[in-house]
Design brief:
Blueprint: E1 10-13, H1 16-42, H2 48-71, E2 86-89, H3 98-109, H4 111-116, H5 121-135, H6 140-157, E3 164-171, E4 183-192, E5 197-207, H7 219-229, H8 237-247, E6 251-266, H9 275-283, E7 291-310, E8 314-322, H10 329-333, E9 337-345, H11 346-355, E10 364-368, E11 374-376
Parallel strand pairs: 9-10
Antiparallel strand pairs: 1-2, 3-4, 4-5, 5-6, 6-7, 7-8, 7-9, 10-11
Helix pairs in contact: 1-2, 2-6, 5-6, 9-11
Length: 377
């Protein structure tokens, strides 16, 4: 289990230019990830429904970072009121700390009230022009007011990546092994508070209940509550899947997938040690080119079904999950397989290829080239 970050692992971005560069770097990375997802789809690593779900979460994550960039647009400037800086987990994550998303969720609940009490965007822009022309002064406080309005507008619009993103499901037609049972793909996501990383879950299951799951007013809320309660990065997929299988006799999980998005390694922002830190230090590229984003894709698949006695005369189906057969690691990782990937610009990749540090041979590398092209190595 990853250790929980301490206060010493956190850094406040008090410098205006550093804060804006940080958000610009994330915006650049999120623009590239859909191309990575398309490559995974082409190689049958992700299904079409999984691609659509992943794209939705990436879009929501982009909206979250855009909202935060508006909130901290004028950090370090005299705005008439203190602007607390964005706090990063610089040791294990490179992402904002969990508390940033909790504050954002609280702000979202009050966004409508704030917007009602603020001047409109056009009014603020006219006032800014008037101050520049009449007083020949930089309208910092008006800029701050406009940035805050844009922040609350983004929150009011919704479709952001929250600390908890409750389970939703889509029906998969023609995919059931039994030929008659409905098959669903349930997905949910959290911002893992232990490691400060976005984590996405996907579970494919068969439903043998009398009432379709999504119309079952008893089972569906129970399923949602159960899955959110198990959305902990420290739990193995095998533990989550077996717990679900044991708790719902008429729901049969056929696969469970978890994607940990991150950590981000960014020269000048994060303090990770090890090969990637050395690679970025030696890349000697511009600030917006010295980054690398890693992610881990864990997959657990059902191998077969067995029947167990239930009560005096009944039986229930239970899944037997396939574990990684290599080197006995299956029991350790609690998954059928685990794939690691990384995306980084060309210059850091060249340094990485030259140094060839141990442990990176099996990591899939996605390299951002000229004109935004993403190549897989």
């Amino acid at each position: 289990m990853a250790r929980a970050p301490t206060a010493e692992d956190h850094k406040a971005l008090r410098d205006l230019r550093a804060s804006r560069r940080y958000f610009a770097t994330f915006r650049q990375i999120l623009d590239h990830l859909p191309r990575v997802a398309a490559d995974m789809r082409a190689r049958n690593q992700l299904s079409e429904p999984e691609i659509e779900i992943l794209a939705t979460y990436l879009t929501q994550l982009g909206h979250t970072f855009h909202a935060l960039s508006m909130k901290y647009l004028l950090v370090g400037r005299d705005t008439g009121r203190p602007v607390p800086p964005l706090t990063l987990d610089t040791q294990d994550s490179g992402f904002p700390v969990f508390n940033e998303l909790l504050i954002m969720a609280n702000d979202a609940q009050q966004a409508a009230t704030h917007l009602d009490n603020m001047p409109g965007a056009e009014t603020l822009k006219r006032q800014m022009v008037d101050q520049i022309v009449a007083e020949r002064d930089i309208p910092t406080r008006l800029q701050f007011a406009l940035a805050q309005r844009l922040y609350y507008q983004e929150l009011a619009r919704g479709e952001l990546f929250w600390a908890q993103n409750d389970p939703r499901a889509i029906e998969l037609y023609g995919r059931g092994n039994s030929g008659t049972r409905p098959r669903l793909l349930i997905h949910w996501a959290v911002y893992d508070s232990q490691v400060n990383l976005p984590t996405i879950y996907l579970m494919e299951l068969e439903d043998s209940g009398r009432t379709p799951l999504l119309r079952d007013t008893r089972r569906w809320p129970e399923v949602q509550a159960h899955l959110m309660g198990q959305a902990l990065g420290g739990l193995k997929l095998l533990t989550i899947a077996k717990g679900f299988d044991d708790s719902f006799d008429d729901l049969h999980p056929k696969s469970l997938r978890r994607l940990h998005l991150g950590p981000l390694y960014a020269h000048g922002y994060t303090r990770q040690s090890g090969p990637l830190h050395e690679v970025l230090s030696e890349a000697a590229a511009s600030v917006d080119q010295t980054w690398a984003l890693a992610w881990t894709d864990e997959i657990l698949q059902s191998e077969r079904v067995i029947e167990e006695r239930a009560g005096w005369f009944g039986t229930v189906e239970r899944e037997v999950f396939a574990l990684d057969p290599f080197s006995g690691r299956g029991a350790d990782i609690g998954a059928t397989r685990m794939d690691r990937s990384i995306i980084l610009p060309e210059r850091p990749y060249q340094v990485l290829a030259e140094k060839s540090p141990p442990g990176f041979a099996q990591v899939t590398k996605y390299v951002v080239g000229s004109a935004g092209r993403v190549l897989r190595y």
